Amino acid sequence: MKLFDKNERVLKKYWKKVKKINEINLENSKFSELIERINKIKKEITQETIDDYLYEVFAIVREVAKRTIGLRPFDVQLIGGMVLHDSKVAEMKTGEGKTLVATMPVVLNALLGKGVHLVTVNDYLAKRDAMWMGPIYLALGLRVGIINTQNKSYEIIWKNKEAFENAVKENLSVWPLDFSDEFLPEEKKVKNATLAFEIEIKEISRKEAYHCDITYGTNTEFGFDYLRDNLVIDLSDRVQRGHYYAIVDEVDSILIDEARTPLIISGPSKTKASDYKRFNQIAKKLIKDKHFTVDEKKKTVILTDEGIEHVEKLLNIDNLYDPEHVNKMYFLLNALKAQYLFKKDVDYIIHKGEVVIVDEFTGRLLPGRRYSGGLHQAIEAKEGVSIKEESITYATITYQNYFRMYEKLAGMTGTAKTEEEEFKQIYGMDVVVIPTHKPMIRKDRDDLIYRTQEEKFQAVVNEIKKRYEKGQPVLVGTTSIEKSERLSKMLKKENIPHNVLNAKHHEKEAEIISKAGQKNSVTIATNMAGRGTDIKLGPGVKELGGLLIIGTERHESRRIDNQLRGRAGRQGDPGESIFFLSLEDDLIRIFGGEKLEKIMNIVKIEKGEPIYHPMLTKLIEKVQKKVESINFGIRKNLLQMDTVLDAQRKAIYSYREYLLSGNIDEHFKDAIEDFTERRLEEFCEQNVCDVNKVKESLKIVNITGEIPDIREELKEFLKNKLIEKFEEKKKEFGEDFHKIGKFIALRVIDENWRQYLEEVEHVKEAVSLRAYGQKDPIIEFKKETYRMFDGMMSRIFEQTIIYTLNIQRLSDETERQSKKELEKINTQHDEFSLVNRRKRRAVDKKGKKRLKVKR
């Protein structure tokens, strides 16, 4: 053991635990005894004692796996399972059986009854892994659910439960018959089974899938379901039941590569251009100081009683404050603000038929920036220019903050060590490199560097042709669709048959990738294609040197290159990897091209001739480290901003939960307290208050009478009057008030939170520019958003009081429409790249690299 090798020290501790598991010999135990023991542990186990049961549960799962799916975990797989149980990242090479490794910590933690989430990168792998490992869980009496992006959910069940129960009684091994051809290794097929049985999936509700002991699904769906759960207007509509333990497969892809962009739930704007125009006309008919008052300092507009009545007549409605008409109020106030608070050529200009904001501090134009909450459209209607519609952001969260909610979080992948610092800093997870079951014998060649891309691709084709004629299978990794198609055309000219895979993961892709190890097979794929699928070598391929991996470009992350290399050399198989590069490749051109070109000129490299040396390979790895550091900075910056937002998001979501749980009276007490305090702050100096201003501000809640001018007396007066009005409303609506009050409060919270999220996006853009003025963008973001959040909470309390005390009725249609809104939302998680940003934008246009799911 190396003296300072931390990984070896950690493994030494795990090997001692493996020895203890191996001492538990269950080969001669009856199947029924194993199940009885698990049932007994399920009754005894607690959060505090879970580690005490690790050895026995791992031993039982190992034996049950052998008897149900014909696979017995190796000792190194036991280590992988313990690493996952300890909330760490297990780095395991391709083909080492990560899917099986997860079953042991999954069962152990599922016995607590809190629910375990197994997170995969796509629907195909979620379904495949759940069904492949399903018999182990079902045999131990655990329920297994699957959620997918088609808004469908399933549970795995026995097709014939009686057959399984009889097998248990007779102590027979039971192997899956159904789908075994698709998923099980050739040597483990059902022909060796003592008794064949079948499993199947049945469709269940999303909520039921989450209430299973184990739930398989994709990272996007777990995140989106969390956001959707915090938009419901009834607790019974929630699907998730908490966040106890998650194991993330391909953890580097999910928690690092995809962590640079947040998950966003958005919906189409419910408004039309005609609505803005209509309310612009209504605003022109209202008289200042008669129908409304304007506070230029705070940039707010307040309707008077006379104004409210006038608007109700113009709109032909009974009550402007009915939640059914909440949007009309926003339209009207925005139209009035546009008319009286935002001036042309001061706050904005008209440029090429568009409203362009003028920065109030610098006087510079801010093209692309828009006022939020419908205000920009109101100004467009005022100026008679084209009105642009926008989608509304309902909710957003980053993967970092979603997955950090879990009490226990673990991950597994073939490549994680290069990002250990990030896993530790962001998620608190150490990385443990698990030894391979058999020694790795793959040969990783030094990079071949050519002057131009044309020379490089010709060299790749020549290499493929040479290996194809020999019969050796080749898998070529490219960094874009465009390059995979370019290579395909060149191979067609040479009459070399091949498969091209360059879209998102799907079942056909996994099937083709799994056959990429057959003789004479040539497969061109984007670097990540088929991730999670094993490539097994066909007959006679070992003798030819195994699978050859060709990389046509270095990725900005070493992990992605290592993932590509890892497709070859599984479980002690032979294999080889070579990267063909050129000075025109994005990574080299941007970060290290000049140095390499000087070397080529010194040694006088001829056209079509490469240079290669271990020192050059190391130089390129240094470039990759540099880019990885930049990307880490981007993710860290995103996280720091989102962590500020996360605290606010949790405050809003916990307040929603507080209301959903029935604390509506307490909410109104909080609102009355805030409403009162804000007025005292605004209209009172020391102990004396401006009675006229107080009186004017209270018209909106119909409080009249003799108003005291002493601060403490005014405080008591306001509180008593508001409580009195509140009690009157409770009597008026009787038993329905609780439902009405809750609905109004939730509607007000959601509407303000949506507007706040839009404003925050603008703030992110604005504070990033302040770095040029030697100001820390994160500190600036905190200052801005704390002030904005406080203002939003004040609006929430004030609007809740105003709407509640003015409500006359609540139609069932209003509630139905609110629930309908949630059915129309879009879920979005766009990809992002630093070096290849322009290239991926082009891919985006083809619709191949964008994940956008419509509900």
UniProtKB/TrEMBL annotation:
Keyword presence, Thylakoid: no
Domain Helicase ATP-binding: residue ranges: 79-287
Membrane topology category: Peripheral membrane protein
EC number: 7.4.2.8
Keyword Lipid biosynthesis found: no
Residues involved in ATP binding: 77, 95-99, 534
Reactions catalysed: ATP + H2O + cellular proteinSide 1 = ADP + phosphate + cellular proteinSide 2
Localization: Cell membrane; Cytoplasm; Membrane
Domain Helicase C-terminal: 444-620
SMART domains: SecA_DEAD, SecA_PP_bind
Origin superkingdom: Bacteria
Subunit record text: Monomer and homodimer. Part of the essential Sec protein translocation apparatus which comprises SecA, SecYEG and auxiliary proteins SecDF. Other proteins may also be involved.
Role according to the record: Part of the Sec protein translocase complex. Interacts with the SecYEG preprotein conducting channel. Has a central role in coupling the hydrolysis of ATP to the transfer of proteins into and across the cell membrane, serving as an ATP-driven molecular motor driving the stepwise translocation of polypeptide chains across the membrane.
The protein, known as: Protein translocase subunit SecA
Biological source species: Thermosipho affectus
Gene that this polypeptide is encoded by: secA
